[in-house]
């Protein structure tokens, strides 16, 4: 029997603190070699695409796939589903609504902040006010005693509205500003989340001593100069980053880490993974002066870890509908 779970049901059993713990365990498993991963894939059509991420993780190991449409010219949230299988016998354990993409991003960046930001970090420079920005910002604010956030996005009305809304929700000063440089000046944490094809963050924008740069948008949003200036570059999954592509702009050279590796300016062996840090295999921040760049690696086995936790918690609470596909 397969457990069918609706959007309302899955939301009852997954929140940010739970997601953070689930993803720490997934990161540790990744470091121990107990994860099977594939880079995200996209079936591209003229104006729409079908995005698929998959992986296997856990004990007992569960494998799965998250599938959903993606818009070429829009960032609108579209319905996403996940199928979860038992690795041992191939049984389809659950088919569920999966509205947790933004939550996974927020939880991942919360972990990166917890392990790599300066302990005394008090300011955030935020670039981008898209649909994932508010939740991601709240997750980061929960990890440090943040006193001020400066937000820049292209539309003045949008960044102003975002600042007013999020400031009231978080109880933190959120100030809209008119440039990237103003947003990031002296910030101990720089958070970037945009769909920009051209870099919006350059090395001369990162002026805070020992800053942590967090990127969760299109890889091209962070210029290669930032990675070259960093003391450390960390990603969620090197395999994911090495396999990244834009389905509508293939081989455009816009992924800075891929470009730097191809040019022998920053090898993949110099790039670390989040699980190496959460598991203690390598140290986290080593000084208040260390400049660290972290790139979120867009789901995969991380999503399957969340889907597996949702399945366990939903079954424990008697949620969902049992269904026999025959």
TrEMBL record:
- Name the domain of life: Bacteria
Q: Name one GO cellular component term.
A: cytoplasm
Show the InterPro entries listed in the entry.
NAD(P)-bd_dom_sf, ODC_Mu_crystall, ODC_N
- Membrane-crossing residue ranges in chain numbering: none
The record ties this protein, via Pfam families, to: OCD_Mu_crystall (PF02423)
> Known PANTHER family for this protein?
KETIMINE REDUCTASE MU-CRYSTALLIN
Q: What is this protein called?
A: Ornithine cyclodeaminase
The organism is Sinosporangium album
Q: Highest lineage ranks of the organism? A: Bacteria, Bacillati, Actinomycetota, Actinomycetes, Streptosporangiales
């Amino acid at each position: 029997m397969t457990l069918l779970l609706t959007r309302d049901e899955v939301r009852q059993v997954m929140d940010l603190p739970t997601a953070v713990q689930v993803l720490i365990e997934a990161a540790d498993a990744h470091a121990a070699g107990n994860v099977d991963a594939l880079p995200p894939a996209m079936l591209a059509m003229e104006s729409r695409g079908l995005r698929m991420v998959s992986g296997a993780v856990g004990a007992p190991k569960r494998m799965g796939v998250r599938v959903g449409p993606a818009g070429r010219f829009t960032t609108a949230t579209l319905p996403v589903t996940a199928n979860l299988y038992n690795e041992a016998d191939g049984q389809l354990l659950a088919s569920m609504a999966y509205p947790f993409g933004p939550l996974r991003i927020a939880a991942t960046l919360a972990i990166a902040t917890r392990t790599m930001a300066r302990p005394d970090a008090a300011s955030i420079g935020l670039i981008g006010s898209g649909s994932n920005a508010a939740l991601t910002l709240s997750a980061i604010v929960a990890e440090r005693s943040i006193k001020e956030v400066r937000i820049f996005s292209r539309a003045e009305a949008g960044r102003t509205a975002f600042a007013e809304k999020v400031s009231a929700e978080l109880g933190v000063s959120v100030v809209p500003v008119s440039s990237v440089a103003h947003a990031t000046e002296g910030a101990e944490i720089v958070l970037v989340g945009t769909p920009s094809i051209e870099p919006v963050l350059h090395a001369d924008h990162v002026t805070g001593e020992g800053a942590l740069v967090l990127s969760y948008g299109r890889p091209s949003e962070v210029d290669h100069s930032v990675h070259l200036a960093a003391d450390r570059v960390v990603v969620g999954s090197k395999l994911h980053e090495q396999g990244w592509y834009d389905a509508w702009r293939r081989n455009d050279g816009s992924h800075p880490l891929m470009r730097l590796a191809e040019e022998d300016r920053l090898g993949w062996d110099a790039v670390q993974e989040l699980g190496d840090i959460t598991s203690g295999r390598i140290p986290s921040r080593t000084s208040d002066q260390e400049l660290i760049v972290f790139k979120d690696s867009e789901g995969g086995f991380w999503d399957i870890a969340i889907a597996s936790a949702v399945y366990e918690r939903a079954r424990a609470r008697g949620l969902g509908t049992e269904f026999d596909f025959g």
